[in-house]
Structure formats: C-alpha cells, structure tokens
Amino acid sequence: MEKEKIIRVTCPACLEEGNFRTVPFVDANLDSDLKESIFNRDIFRFCCKECGEEILVSYECTYLDKDNNFMVSLIPEKDDLVIEMTGYTLRIVRTINEFVEKIALMEDGIDDRVVELYKIMLEDQFEEERQGSEILGIYYSGQNPDDKSLVFFIITANAENVRAILSFDTYQTISKQFENYPEMDKNDCEINKIWAIKTLQNGFSDKTE
C-alpha cells in the first residue's frame, strides 16, 4: 500500500496552491503516531505557507487494525466499490468526522449499527424538545470508564453543541433487539444515517417489540 502521496491544494483564503502530504494507508499496529494524527485531525490539516490559513482536506485514507479485525476507509467520492476483507469488519465513510468516529467505535467494541439507530431516536427527541434547532451532526466521543455509558456530542447550526449520554444498559437493550432482526445484512459497509432510516422504515421497531 502507498505510504504517502503529495497532492496540490488551493487555499480558500488567498487562492495560492501548495503541496500537501496525504497518507492513503494507516496500519494501527505499526503507525501509532499516525493513529494519533487521525484523532486530532492533523493527518488532514493543511496549512497555507503563503497566508497561514488552516483547513481540513478530505482524501482517500484507509485505516487497518489487525488486532481488532476491522478496516475503515474514508472515500469522499460516491464511488461504487467492491472491497473484500475476509475475517474483517469493513466500514466505508464519506467524511473526516465519520472516519474518526468509526475508528473510535470499533476500538471500543461498540456496534455502530446500534449507534446509528440511536442517533435517529436522539435527533427526533432533540428536535421535539428544541424546535427550530438544526442538527449538523451527532458524533460518538467515547465511553465513560465509570459506568460504560456512551457519550455523544450534538453539533447544531447555531453552535449550541450539546452533550448526550446513552446508558450502557439501554445500548445493550437495543443491541439485543438488533440480534432478532434477521433480515438485516451484516455485510453492509456503509452504516450511516441513511442506512438507519431505511432500517427503521423496513420495520426494525415492529420486529423487535
């Protein structure tokens, strides 16, 4: 796999072009420093040498964790891909935030399908309680070591970022219900909001009551 690749990036502030070193592949077992760079977004951070402007640049990047048997691929463009990784859980994401979130979920042993279903419920509840608030995204930010609860941040258009907690008991309840839903293809690679909506529309709630 290609270790690094230089691309040209145009600064949105001064419109000057500059070289940017991208890292198309990260092996979690060999590249601990690169792993940290993913979580703090430095691996995607471009700094213009002309004016100092900093932006995040989304590019194709694959993260492989052999110890935990999973692979996450950031593929910004909507390509029809066929990727086979026998014995591995594979996820394809389209944004940097999703990339970071999937890796965190996989490392913590949290089922991202359950998380995406919960996000739909959380979004409905939030919009009902705070009418007029526009949610830009809901992202997993870690697990509380004391009670194993799952912590989420709700990012809103008016910068009113809200913290939400999912108890581990509730997570396990949703997860157990999910096990009784045989129609769902466990080989789905793109597990996101669209996937969750389709799952709920296909009768997940009815079949798990």
Tell me about this structure.
The structure is a single chain. The chain is α+β, with helices and mostly antiparallel strands. It has two domains: 5-95, no CATH class; 112-207, no CATH class. It is 31% helix and 27% strand. The protein is built from six helices and eleven strands. The strands form four sheets. The chain has a four-stranded mixed sheet, with helices on one face. Strands 9-10-11 form a three-stranded antiparallel sheet. It has a two-stranded antiparallel ribbon with strand order 1-2. Strand 9 and strand 10 (150-156) form a beta hairpin. Helix 3 packs across helix 5. The radius of gyration is 19 Å and the shape is globular.
Q: State which percent range the strand residues make up.
A: 25-35%
Categorize the overall geometry.
globular
Low-confidence stretches: 205-209
Radius of gyration from CA coordinates: 19 Å
Strand arrangement within the widest β-sheet reads 3-6-7-8
What fraction, in percent, of the residue positions are helical?
A: 25-40%
Primary descriptors:
209 residues; 3-stranded antiparallel β-sheet; 27% strand; disordered C terminus
Summarize the structure.
The chain has 209 residues and is of the alpha+beta class.
Topology, pairings included?
Blueprint: E1 5-10, E2 17-22, E3 25-27, H1 32-39, E4 45-47, E5 54-56, E6 61-65, E7 70-74, E8 89-93, H2 96-108, H3 112-129, E9 135-143, E10 150-156, E11 162-166, H4 168-179, H5 193-201, H6 204-207
Parallel strand pairs: 3-6, 7-8
Antiparallel strand pairs: 1-2, 4-5, 6-7, 9-10, 10-11
